[in-house]
Write a structure and sequence with these properties.
about 650 residues; mainly beta; Collagenase (Catalytic Domain); 5 domains; 3 helices; 41 strands; about 5% helix
Length: about 650
């Protein structure tokens, strides 16, 4: 059978046919060739399977087919080494039946049938039909070339089907239909050729073919084995034993007696499955090749047979079935030998304390600390902490105390908040904190690591992301700092008089939550510090010199209208979230006078807002036909040129 491959979108199209070839040299030729265009092909979609049987292209009269004399057909084969497995499998498939006709090997000079690589006229195989003066089977070159993404064993089985099909022609069989041996089109993988056992293939000669040949040559309707191994089976693994586990408080170790004789390519297979029972899930791929399902096993590992032992690493502390089996290169072997053990991991490694800081809110909660502790949690380990008064660090786990009450909700190397309480749940000032790592089964902890809280280090200067003016004397600040252990303070000074170190006084009186009032100081210089829980400031400040507000632009007005109550509305070019406000003056005389001398823009402010279509404004004129003048102004009270609208 010739395999033609082409990609069609996401579909893999496999076309294969066993089609008739015109007679040559007086012989009725039957061969395997690609399906003619009239024959449907088997299209394998990635999400569904569809198959359509193909018809036969040959019509040979059974009256012209001669039966072989005697009970043996002497054959001689001249095939490459890569064909030998397929040839022998095809011969065995016929010889293992109850047919009174056997294929036997003979020298070329005495052979009645020659099996060689030769002309196939586009088919995979080409053979004479029935007994003739000269009998032969021709096979296509590269017949056993592996199928992409599949083991070479699959191609060997396909080739065995092709050779067995051609031997069926030699015995006098004609084409049939469906998934039978003598079908002219072998649809793969709709017509299964692999057994549902790991490393086994299904018998090749089927009942319809045998029934017809028994009718011709006599014998019993006895089929060969239902499934056969792809390669020689290895012996059962001997001396398998299981050691360790959590109950024994020792690493899990599996041992076996290295086999003295095993087929080439054999290996010991380790299977680890979850749960309290031993089950080894298998699955078949698209082509029917069956194997252990690695996606449902926690571990699947190949080991050299002579190694004699393996210690699989634990992923977590739970019950698993550990199993071993010796398999050949196709994965076939005896049933795995397994035992359920609880995984074991060694005593946890002591944690590493990277930093301990007093929480800023210790004024209200003296027990609060911020810690960064690194520890190994690869097997589900957790962090424990014991707090003791200053100078009385715990050098071992306190007798009688449970682990649960000392658990720390921490991620290795990440900040976490902890509380230092005594047995009466009173805060411990200047505590000594002792950390342990606890194994996931809560039965073993590491050696302790202590940290005596001392003077709080100076906080790092803040990072000032932005300072935004929100009014004539107000600003907001966006700053980044460690708010768990520090707060933000600001010093306001006149223009050019920034301070870079704390000027003195209580810094907690200058804390800011982001809002800054600079009333009485025009264009101030702002100096930002961080303050820790002990009231110490960062060693340096981050300064920002405020400047005059930008000049306001002349506003553009549109859709300006007044209703019967004197309410004025419309749209403006200003940004409602920007640095400029909108002022409006009203002149009932219709002559539109300049902005009143000495007046404040804030006294004439109108509201602006986003109405979904742009920046809208709304004000009150008290008149139905006023002359309106609009100005933008900045936070320094500077006015733009006016835009006049006569209604």
């Amino acid at each position: 059978m010739r395999r033609a491959w082409r990609l069609a979108g996401t579909a893999l199209v496999v076309a294969g046919a066993l089609a008739a070839v015109p007679p040559s040299s007086g012989a009725d030729g039957h061969g395997r060739a690609p399906s003619p265009s009239a024959h449907p092909t088997y299209v394998v979609h990635l999400d569904r399977d569809t198959a359509t049987p193909a018809g036969d292209t040959s019509r040979t009269s059974s009256r012209s087919i001669r039966s072989w004399p005697g009970k043996k057909i002497r054959y001689w084969a001249d095939l490459p080494q890569s064909y030998q497995w397929s040839l022998q499998a095809a011969l065995r498939s016929w010889n293992a039946t109850g047919l009174d006709m056997t294929f036997v090997r003979a020298p070329k000079s005495r052979a009645q049938l020659q099996i060689v690589v030769g002309k196939t006229y586009g088919s995979d195989g080409y053979a004479t039909v029935g007994y003739q003066q000269r009998n032969w089977v021709h096979l296509r070159p590269a017949l056993t070339r592996p199928i992409p993404s599949e083991p070479a064993s699959y191609a060997r089985v396909v080739a065995a089907h092709i050779i067995a099909h051609e031997l069926g022609h030699v015995l006098g069989l004609e084409h049939t239909s469906g998934c039978e041996l003598m079908t002219p089109v072998l649809m793969l993988p709709t017509c299964p050729i692999m057994a549902d056992r790991i490393g086994f293939y299904s018998r090749i000669v089927d009942r319809p073919a045998l029934k017809k040949t028994v009718g011709r040559y006599g014998g019993r309707l006895s089929l060969g084995p239902k499934s056969l191994p792809l390669d020689s089976l290895p012996p059962r693994l001997r001396g398998v034993s299981f050691h360790g586990g959590l109950d024994a408080d020792a690493p899990v170790k599996l041992t076996w007696t290295p086999p003295k004789h095993a087929p080439a390519g054999s290996h010991v297979l380790l299977l680890v499955t979850n749960g309290g029972s031993c089950r080894y899930p298998v699955s078949a791929d698209f082509w029917g090749m069956t194997a252990y399902d690695g996606s449902r096993l926690q571990r699947l590992q190949e080991i050299a047979p002579d190694k004699g032992s393996v210690s699989p690493p634990a992923v977590d502390i739970s019950r698993h079935c550990y199993a071993l089996t010796l398999v050949n290169r196709s994965g076939a072997g005896s049933a795995p030998q397994g035992k359920v053990l609880k995984s074991w991991v060694s005593a946890p490694v002591s944690p590493t304390v990277q930093s301990v800081r007093r929480g800023y809110d210790q004024e209200f909660d003296p027990s609060l600390y911020k810690v960064v502790v690194d520890f190994d949690d690869s097997h589900g380990e957790e962090l424990l902490m014991v707090a003791r008064p200053s100078g009385h660090c715990a050098n071992a786990w306190p007798t009688g105390e449970s682990y649960d009450s000392h658990l720390v909700a921490a991620t290795p190397g990440e900040p976490a908040q902890v509380n230092a309480y005594d047995s009466a749940f009173d805060p411990i000032p200047d505590a000594c904190l002792t950390f342990f790592t606890m194994r996931a089964d809560e039965k073993r902890i590491s050696a302790p690591v202590s940290y005596q809280v001392g003077s709080e280090p100076l906080p790092a200067p803040p990072v000032i992301n932005a300072v935004t003016r929100t009014g004539p004397d107000t600003y907001t600040v966006d700053a980044t700092y460690d708010s768990d252990v520090a707060r933000l303070a600001v010093v306001v000074k006149p223009t050019g008089q920034c301070v870079t170190s704390w000027p003195g006084g209580d810094p907690t009186q200058s804390l800011t939550d982001g809002f800054i009032d600079t009333t009485g100081t025009s264009q101030p210089c702002l100096s930002f510090f961080t303050v820790n829980a002990e009231g110490a400031t960062s060693p340096t400040a981050v300064t920002r010199q405020m400047t005059a507000a930008p000049a306001p632009p002349k506003p553009t007005m549109s859709d300006v209208a007044v209703d019967e109550f004197g309410t004025v509305s419309g749209h403006t070019s200003l940004d409602p979230e920007g640095q400029f406000g909108l002022a409006m003056t009203v002149d009932p005389t219709g002559s539109c006078q300049p902005f009143p001398s000495g007046a404040s823009a804030a006294d004439y402010q109108v509201s602006i807002f986003d109405d979904g279509t742009g920046t809208a404004f709304q004000g009150f004129s008290g008149e139905t036909h006023p002359c309106l003048t609009f100005y933008s102004y900045n936070y320094d009270g500077v006015l733009s040129a006016g835009t006049t609208v006569q209604l």
